[in-house]
Amino acid sequence: MTPPTVVLSATGPPVTILEAIGTMAFAVSGAMAATRHRMDVFGVAVLGVIAAIAGGTLRDLLLSEPVSWLQHWWPIALAAATAVATIPIALRLGPDVDSRSSVLMADAVGLAGFAVLGCHAALNAGSPAGIAVIIGTISGITGGIIRDVLTGQPPAVFTGRFYALAAIAGTTLYALLIRTSVNASLSWWISVAGVFTLRASALHRDWTIATVGPTKRS
Length: 218
Hints:
Layout: H1 13-36, H2 41-62, H3 68-71, H4 74-93, H5 95-98, H6 101-124, H7 129-150, H8 164-177, H9 184-205
Helix pairs in contact: 1-2, 1-4, 1-6, 1-7, 2-4, 2-6, 2-7, 6-7, 6-8, 6-9, 7-8, 8-9
């Protein structure tokens, strides 16, 4: 079956806006995680940048496309500036940063933005809808995984949290909506809102997926 034509430009304003939102959100989550682990200013900036560009980098590599931040400097600059600007906010939050709630909510925004952006990019590249959903999900979760690994935390996607499933649901919704008469930009934002709402609801209501392994003994 021929993949549907995606009418949004691969480099147009909606794409740029969504990439900027995702970049800033993951930079904030990286900066807050770095602050929680008492890193220096350089470490905060580096972790913020890595968290922000990781998903998009892997997306571009999977699609055999030029890596976006190697073509345009602004994602690196935006991520670094956002991470450094987050430091006083993270310090003011104090114990709330220690609880990871602020990190996870910022991460939910980044997850939503990059998951739908990755799905859109894959569809534009001619990928079937199912592959586009996978690439979108990978794009959405990679930044959070690398951030958690670099700070010594178990990645949320592997610990029974409703994380990747939110990305799968939202990207599937996007792939379905663009096959209908729904406006393409509206499909875009509905899907982003869907991913964020599912992830935020999971955090608020403590939705989990059954984990496997031996039970810890007291």
